[in-house]
Every structure is written in C-alpha cells, then in structure tokens.
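Form 12-C: Joint structure prediction
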Amino acid sequence: MVENEGLQRYVAHAILWIGIAIVAFPVYLAFVASTQDNAAIANGHMSLLPGGHFIETYYKTLFVGSSGTTREPVGTMLLNSLIMALSIALGKIAISILSAYAIVFFRFPFRMTVFWIIFITLMLPVEVRIYPTYKIAADLNLLDSYSGLALPLIASATATLLFRQFFMTVPDELLEASRIDGAGPFRFFKDTLLPLSRTNMAALFVILFIYGWNQYLWPLLITTRDDMQTIQVGIRKMIVTSDALTEWPVVMATSILAMLPPVLVVIVMQKLFVRGLVETEK
Amino acid sequence: MAGVTLRNVRKTYPGGVDAIKGVDFEVGDGQFCVLVGPSGCGKSTLLRMVAGLETITSGEIDIGGRVVNQVEPADRDIAMVFQNYALYPHMSVYNNMAYGLRNRGMAKPEIDKRVREAAQILEIGPMLDRKPKQLSGGQRQRVAMGRAIVRQPKVFLFDEPLSNLDAKLRIAMRVEIRKLQRRLNTTSIYVTHDQLEAMTLADVLVVMNGGVVEQIGNPLDIYQKPATTFVASFIGAPPMNLTPFKPGDASVPVPGNTGGILGVRPEDLTLTTGSAPDGGVRYDLTVEAIERVGAETFVYGSRNGAKDAVAVSAKPGELPPGEIIVRLPGQAAPAIGERIVAVAPRDKLHIFGTDGRNRIEL
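Section 2 - Result
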C-alpha cells in the first residue's frame, strides 16, 4: 500500500465523494419526489428537500395502488417479485449444485457430453428462446402462476459451472476419507460438500436474487392478471399513461421500494458474499 | 486383530497401464509393514487397493481371513491416514474424529469416550473444539491419527503421512507413530519414499520398483543382503557404490568370474596406503569433492583410468560412471585432487549378475 500524504489524499477523497454524489443523487431525487405533491412535480417546481407527503404516498403505493394503471397495490407486486426472485435464486442453487455434484463426483456414460450440453445452454438465454419457452409454459398451464414465473428461469449453466469449478478443487482425499468413514454419496454431499459450499452458495444467492428481481421481459409475457404483476413490470405500466397525469410520487415511491430488497440482500449477505468470491483455503 | 495377505495382486488401468504386476506378501498380526520405493513404483496404488479406494484387477486381498476384493472401504475395518491429512475443514477436531463413529451409529457416550481417549493419547485434548485450519501441521497430523485410532480398526494404513512436515517434526512424529503402533499393537501398512523412515519403522520392509516387489524382509537383512542392485542403491544413504566388471576381471575376487556388478557400501570402504586385504577390493581414486556433515565425511572420488566406465542401471541415487563414495568417520579428509586408495574386505562385497539381479553369495 502506498501511503498517501496531505493534499494527494484530499484530492483522492474529493474524487470519491464526487463519484458517490453522482451515483446517489438520482436515488435521492427519486426519494424526494416520492414525498412531494404530484402537482408540484408536474409543473416543474419540485423542491430538492423532502416534502410532507411521505406517509400518504407510501401508504397509497403499498396498500392502494395506482388506480388508473396497475390496479393493484405495490405490496402485492413486491410479494410477487419476492416470490419469483427467491424461487429463481434458490431453485437455481439447488439444481446446479446437484448437477455439478453428479458431473464432478460420479462416473457415468456420457458424463462430459452432459456437461457440454449444460455448458452450451449458456448461449441460449431466455431472450433467445422466448417463443418456444412461452409455448411450453402455456401448454403446461403455467401462465399467470408463480411456477410459470420462476421455473423457466431456474435452469442455469453459470451456477452449475461455478459449483463444478469449486467441487473440482475439493481434494480427492476428502472424498476418500469420507468413504472410509462410512459416508455414502448422500452423506458426503450433506455433511462435507454442502458446508464447504456455504460461501459459494451465499455469493450465488446474491447474484441470482438480483438477477431474478430484475427480470422484466419474462414476467411481462407470462403474466396477464393484475394480481400476478411483478414490481418491475408495474413501474413501467405506471409511467405510461395515455390520458391521465402520471402519478410521479407513486412511481418514485415504487422505484424506491423496488430497490430496497436487493440492497437488503447485499447488505445482509455482504460478508459471506465477499468470502465466497475470494475464499481459497479448504 | 488381524493380518493382511496379498495374493498375486494386479492392477491394470483402463488405458492398459500395469501399475501393479503381481504382488504377494503377508503382514502378520500386529506387524508394522513399510512399502518403500521411488515415486511411481505403485506403492500408493497398492495401499489404496488394500483400503478399497482402487479396484483390484486380479488376485486377492485378505484382511483377517476375509477376502475383501468386493468389500466397500467402510466395511473393511481399516483406517487410513492421508498425506495431506484430509481433515474435514468445516468440522471441529472432535467432530473430525467422531464423524466415522456417528456414521456407524455408535452410541454417543461410547463415541465421546473413544474420542477423549484418543485425544489424551495424542495430546490434543485442549484442541478438540478447534477447526483444522487453526492447527499446525504436526497437530493436524495428530488429529488425522486420532481419527484412525478411534475406529479401533483391524489395520492402519498410512499414505506418506509425514511428507508434509518439516524435517525435525518428521523425526519426532516417526518415533511417535512407532510407539503408538507398538502400544495399540495394530497391524499397519505404511507407504513412504523415504528410506530412513522405512528402515526405522518397519518390522517387515517391502521394497517396490515398477509395480513389482524387489525384496521383502527385515530392514537390517535387506540392508546387509540386498537382493538386487535396485535395492542396494535405494536402501542406504549415500547409496551403495556399484561398478560393473567384465568376465575374468582379476580385480574382482569372484570364483568363476562371468562378469556382473560389484557393490560396496560407502561405510565399508577404508582409506589405506597398502594393498587390498586378502580377497577384498581396491579402488585407486582421485578426490573430486568432499562433503562434511559433522559426524562423518563423504569423499567423492573418481576411479583413476576409469573415466569411460559404464554406469550401472540402478535408478535411485545413481552415480556418474566411475565415481565412488567413501564414508569416513569424523571430519578428517584428504584434499581435493589428492590420490587415495580405498579398500574393502571380502565379506563386505556384494556381487550381482549383469542384469542387476541374481545376488551371488561369496
């Protein structure tokens, strides 16, 4: 580490503060807007200090909703998004850790073929296969359901790959010691591999939760009922109003609310997340 | 308590590589058997076959009167200590030792009793709640041994357990392993590439090379009467001086001399000004290098007029052609470049056939 002295340090800090301001100002503005009167925003006389409508706007957003556009309170959307993001994150982790376990620790015919098939799906994200995926979901009666929201996004080559790389660094002797200790494949997985993957799982959970939370295109296609909307879709719907004034305080409050869960997840999992990315000792 | 018997055990890998080419030996009840050989000689593979971690291509492995070829490692009643210890990193020392017992459904009080007993024997009692990464190498080694002890198995298997320790600790642990094995009187098979470990630990020494057993026996017997040039150069440090001789070579006192290889251990050579003792051997050397290690001195000399001598094909510690090592007690040594004469009496000579086998008794 270079020891920065005097002026140099102040300059560095000033640059960092400017960076923080650039990133944080829009968020602050959104919060301020959410506490103001809609008329004030609409005619361009918005104050840069929080207004007096905080409780009113947030109550309306969470429990009543914007009557003209989404017709559902944001509380419902938050719940929908939460269920979807959690199902995607947990589902992906569960499926990938199992498939990686099979690929790394078992010898079966076409093992590498299976691995490459999983690998190739990296090239086929939802956007590319959206029509066939929609068709399948529709045929399986998954439209307007939580399983329809989550299932097609659960299969993940990235997570499988990550677990595979991690499992390959687990020394063979550990498996052998387990075998001598009388632990079968299931026990080895449960007692040794899962605890060792804890930090990796946490890191993946953060990434995948945010991935699931930010989904827009798929929920837009698969849900038509108002009470199945996710929050990302809802925000967009609130803004586009053809014959009425956009309720900006509600939109901004929704945006703030939409940001909170990922932020919370990152804050809560931060320690594990960083360890999961840098941990090398086994 | 049980012995281990290997009958014509072979291992061929799917690629067609013969790792083990037919091995027979027997380890008696309570004996300490050491498999020694250079890396790649198949000693670890053989141990892993006994453990059940490698399949057996043909032949039989018998533990305590039961052929275990098809038995799972957990059911063979063995315990293994690995080179890298293979401790479960996320479990405490206590749980590392208790894990195997829990998997067998042993009652909690019995597990507790056994773990505490083992911890006391190995002096790791205060560390039971720590995680392996909070321990030093030597302590991890003890935990790995503890994990083996609590099982009270018929056979201990050690796969180069001391290679990851520093030299001083290795010597201390070596003595401890030996004491522990004597105390528990459990049949043990120990793999190492370190001939010193092999010599000091073994009741039965098995010297392996290229997937076959070169010689089996008591360590000192093997040292005194190596069966092949490979064993001769592998056991003992510095290695035995091996020099090929032609049929009828008058300097080698063999009856009916048909050519072969002559071996003399460095410590059996003495410097003299006279001629060789009756029936002994004499080397005229020019001193090339000197190594003083305190209690003894190694003199590396090249044989006068033998610069073009043929090397003997015994791999480990192979000497350059015509080079002879003489081990002298103390620190006095000739100067570099000095011409010296080294002699060995007849009863210290080892004579092998030209192929390095067929030891001929004088």
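Section 3 - Comments
The first helix of chain B runs from residue 43 to 51. The helical segments of chain B are 43-51, 93-103, 108-122, 137-150, 167-184, 195-201, 219-224, 229-234.
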